[in-house]
Amino acid sequence: MSGLYVHIPFCIQKCDYCDFYSEDDKNYLIQDYLQAVIKELQKYKYQYNPVFDTLYIGGGTPTSISEKFLDFLFSSIFSIYPKSCFKEITIEINPETLTEKKAKVISLNVTRASVGAQSFNDDLLKILNRVHNSETIKKAIGLLRQYDINNINIDIMFGIPQQKPDDALNDLKQTIDLKPSHISYYMLTLYKNTKMYGYKLPDDKLIEDMYLKGVDFLNKNGFIQYEISNFCQKGKECIHNLNYWNIGQYIGVGASASSYYNNERYTNIKSIAGYINKINKDEKVIDFVEKYTEDKKLKDYIILKLRTTKGILYDDFKEKFKFDFKEKYSNIIDKLVKAGLSKEEKNSFSLTERGFIVSNKILQEFI
Ligand code: SF4
Predict the structure, then answer these.
(1) What is the domain-level CATH number for residue 103?
(2) Which residue, judged by its Cα, is nearest atom 8 of ligand 1?
(3) Is residue 346 part of a domain?
(4) How far is the CA of 9 from the centre of ligand 1 (A)?
(5) Rounded distance between C-alpha atoms, residue 105 and residue 102, angstroms
(6) Does 3 sit in the ligand 1 pocket, CB within 6 Å?
(7) Are 72 and 183 in the same domain?
């Protein structure tokens, strides 16, 4: 199983919490950038001939580019890897940028749309400096439905400055009303290089409330939790992301895109112009590379598996790392189970909902 990720680093406005690589004033480079991305993909095909099961077009804001460029992007990718290669094709959508013409192009090319709503509270959207409001989100979902795109994820954030638990619950209620097949309900994290760094966030008790009540509400409304922040209707898990959590291989093309392939992890340079330049000169675009050692693999396995509700399956762990998880970590396991932060079943170990809230601290115990 392996995934192809395509990064589109253009946005119409930077959100104040955003830590992803994207630019809001480089639209004049879109055409050259897309051509460079396709060249990078062709190079991979020629050098390694990788096989992909999923395609994920993310950003940035893929829908900030015109329908003409979207069409070019899809048709160019599918001329290298035919559409039928992929079990799942996802595109990320910022509601403000979706038009009828773009929805039409998208409907012909994807199996899944992921809409970055974040909140239905216009005051909170302003704090985040999102470019859209709640009405725009509803219109965008309506447009997707109009073009028969019904496999829809909606991203909803909690832990926003000034947000109360009732606000978070209200966001989830409005999300459910739109009948998505998948919901990402995730906590806002502020990184140093963002404008919102240093803002006062809701305290730990409020965060816990927002998360636990949110999980309970989603469960009661038929959404099955399969990862710390991901919930879906039966059979609607995101296959592309499941591959990340299963430590599957993936290749990312485009500026700042990361890859894990042939036992190495690497990341491309974070510069649109620099990326285009290097691709056109046939130079390497990789900025950072690390060998994926057994030790690193073990740490990632524990971190990623404990994000999932299935957790660590003892047999699978032993087969991969040639030692017994339960034996090696018995003290930590006992302590966490007693504290109600994790649970053990016959052949598995996983975190409880309360454990998910403090997962960062728990993971440090193992690594
Ligand atoms: S739309 Fe997404 S990628 Fe663009 S600035 Fe906002 S959060 Fe970042």
Answers:
(1) 3.80.30.20
(2) 18
(3) yes
(4) 9
(5) 5
(6) no
(7) yes
326 and 221 in a common domain = no
Element housing 176 (H / E): helix 165-177
Residue 286 lies in a domain: no
Q: How far is the CA of 257 from the centre of ligand 1 (A)?
A: 15
The position carrying tokens 């927002």 is 210
Q: Give residue 89 CA to ligand 1 midpoint distance, Å.
A: 20
Number of domains in the chain: 2
| β-pair type (258-261, 264-268) | antiparallel
CATH code of the domain covering residue 305? 1.10.10.920
**CA angle (44 as vertex; 41, 50 as ends), nearest 5:** 110
The answer to whether 252 and 268 are in contact (CB under 8 A) is yes
In terms of domains, do 37 and 155 share one? yes
User: Residue-wise pLDDT tens for the chain (367 aa)?
Assistant: 799 999 999 999 999 999 999 999 999 999 999 999 999 999 999 999 999 999 999 999 999 999 999 999 999 999 999 999 999 999 999 999 999 999 999 999 999 999 999 999 999 999 999 999 999 999 999 999 999 999 999 999 999 999 999 999 999 999 999 999 999 999 999 999 999 999 999 999 999 999 999 999 999 999 999 999 999 999 999 999 999 999 999 999 999 999 999 999 999 999 999 999 999 999 999 999 999 999 999 999 999 999 999 999 999 999 999 999 999 999 999 999 999 999 999 999 999 999 999 999 999 998 8
158 close to 187: Cβ distance less than 8 angstroms: yes
Q: Tell me the residue range of the domain where 128 lies.
A: 2-244
